Amino acid sequence: MSASQSMRAVRITAHGGPEVLELTEIAVPDPQGREVLVRVSAVALNNTDLWTREGAYGRPGAPKTQSGWRGSIDFPRIQGADVAGHVVAVGTGVEASLVGRRVVVDPAIYDAEGPDANPVGLMGSERDGGYAEYVTAPVERVHDVTESPLTDDQLATLPTAYGTALGMIERGRLHKGETALVSGASGGVGLALVQIARARGARVLAITSGPKIDAVREAGAHEVIDRAGDIAGQIRTHAPQGVDVALDVVAGELVTEGLPLLREGGRWVIAGALGGYDVTFDVRRLYLHNAQVIGSAMHTPAHFDLLMDLARRGEVQPVIAATFRLDQAAQAQEELSRRGHVGKIVMHP
Question: What is the CATH number of the domain that holds 273?
Answer without folding.
Answer: 3.40.50.720
